[in-house]
Amino acid sequence: MTIIMKHKNKGFTLIEVLISLVIFAFGMLGVAMQMSKSLSNTINNEVHSSVMQLAMQSIEPLNIAVLRDRDAFSAALTNLANTGNTPAFATNNSQLKSFDISISSALDSDGDSLFAEPNNNWAPPYTIILEVEYTGVEENTLSFFTTHVLVPNETSS
User: Fold this and answer.
1) Do the beta carbons of residue 57 and residue 87 sit within 8 Å?
2) First vs last Cα of the chain: how many Å apart?
3) How far apart are CA 41 and CA 52, in angstroms?
4) Sheet with 126-135, side-by-side order of all strands
5) Global model pTM greater than 0.70
6) Residue pLDDT, tens place only, 12-53
7) Which of 6, 61, 76, 142 has its CA 20 to 30 A from that of 149?
8) pLDDT in tens, 84-140
9) Domain-by-domain residue ranges, the chain?
10) Contact, 134 vs 98, CB < 8 A?
């Protein structure tokens, strides 16, 4: 009887090994899914950071123009609305070609459109909402909206 007991305690059974492999596989699957999610979040954060930087570079000419006068602001606003030209796009950076910047809305403090009203009727401050679209390598398009409030100088006409 003692011979049988010794033989029984020598190793693992096939079922014990298979169950431990299944548990290990589920653990590794969880780790892989977490790493994939972490990588996706990192990429999304990089895109969001780039979008915010481009939005700030796009709005900078409007910030400068609004401090000069309404005509300069109107010209800069029209230029951005019609062409989407910003200092960032002048660098010919191939990564920037994945981004599209457009003005979603441009309103004065009364809620009137800055494109419909002549600039002498605008009531400051002005609210500009930019839409930045990013088209990734998988052709997925992400849209981001950024709101900017511009306040002209007291002396601007």
Assistant:
1) yes
2) 106
3) 16
4) 99-107, 126-135, 141-150
5) no
6) 889 999 999 999 999 999 999 999 999 988 888 888 888 888
7) 142
8) 655 555 444 555 667 888 888 999 999 999 888 788 888 889 999 998 888 876 777
9) 47-150
10) yes
